[in-house]
Amino acid sequence: MSYILTFANTHGAIFAEKTLLQAGYSVGVMPLPSGIKAGCGIALRVADHLVAKALLQENNIVVAAVYQASLNSPDTVYSEVLG
């Protein structure tokens, strides 16, 4: 299972990626999936959204939303994680 982090702007997404990578956290950069109707167009894929979000908050980086990616044939479904 993976999680998608969205950001208000591209700068936030790029800064978040850099911060997570410097901390040794595995992160993937991807275009915002069409199933998500928010954000700047760039999203980050992470395995553990709680750890990633906590690390980003420590560095004053705001995550706009978190989505859980669930693979349902033939499409991936994205559900917003609240809280």
Automatic annotation (TrEMBL):
All residue ranges annotated as the Putative Se/S carrier protein-like domain in the record: 3-68
Superkingdom of origin organism: Bacteria
Entry-linked InterPro entries: Se/S_carrier-like
Organism of this sequence: Desulfosporosinus lacus DSM 15449
Record-given protein name: Putative Se/S carrier protein-like domain-containing protein
